[in-house]
Amino acid sequence: QVQLVESGGGLVQAGGSLRLSCAASGSFFGLGTVHWYRQAPGKQRELVGGSFNGGSATYATLVEGRFTISRDNAKKTVYLQMNSLKPEDTAVYFCNAYIVTLTGSTQSYWGQGTQVTVSA
Fold first, then answer.
1. How far apart are CA 120 and CA 14, in angstroms?
2. Is the distance from CB of 39 to CB of 91 less than 8 angstroms?
3. Phi and psi (nearest 5°) for 65?
4. pLDDT at residue 7 above 90?
5. Largest distance between two CA atoms of the chain
6. What is the predicted pLDDT for the residue at 53?
7. 61: closest CA among 75, 44, 77, 49?
8. Mean pLDDT to the nearest integer, 5-15
9. CB within 8 A of 58, min separation 6: which ones?
10. Quick one: pLDDT band at residue 64, thresholds 50, 70, 90?
11. Cβ distance 52 to 35 under 8 Å?
12. Is 54 helix (H, G, I), strand (E, B) or coil?
């Protein structure tokens, strides 16, 4: 059974940093594209950015220049480094990964989310 687990959330002051992790576990062939999303109370889930197999990444305008996505394929983990955090970054952060299963199909998995709270 494939699982995604996010970790690294917490409470931080404005201007601070956090690093989130999205770790895949279980038996599968490979970790494909992984996206980070966030959802603030009363708001729709929004895309933060994505990490691609070749190592490139893309970012939403709101976080570009402050957030960095990286991956360690050997550890089956994707990271979201968040710097210069603002109170408006407060949200539950989720990762979504496309995983190549042992049957050769590609399936989408979601993690359970990790809370990030940025105080003013």
1. 5
2. yes
3. 90, -15
4. yes
5. 48
6. 83
7. 49
8. 98
9. 49, 50, 52
10. very high
11. no
12. coil
Tokens 């989408």 belong to: 108
Name the token pair of 12: 């931080």
Mean pLDDT computed over every residue of the chain: 96
Residues paired with 110 in a beta bridge: 96
Token pair recorded at residue 39: 């959802």
The structure tokens listed for 79 are 């990271």
Question: Could you tell me the two tokens for 110?
Answer: 């979601």
Q: Please, are residues 50 and 33 in contact by the beta-carbon 8 Å criterion? A: yes
**Amino acid at residue number 34:** V
* Beta carbons of 67 and 82 less than 8 angstroms apart: yes
Buried/exposed 35-62: b ≥16 CB within 10 Å, e otherwise: bbbbeeeeeeeeebbbbeeeeebebeee
pLDDT in tens, 87-120: 999 999 999 999 999 999 999 999 999 999 999 9
**DSSP for residue 71:** E
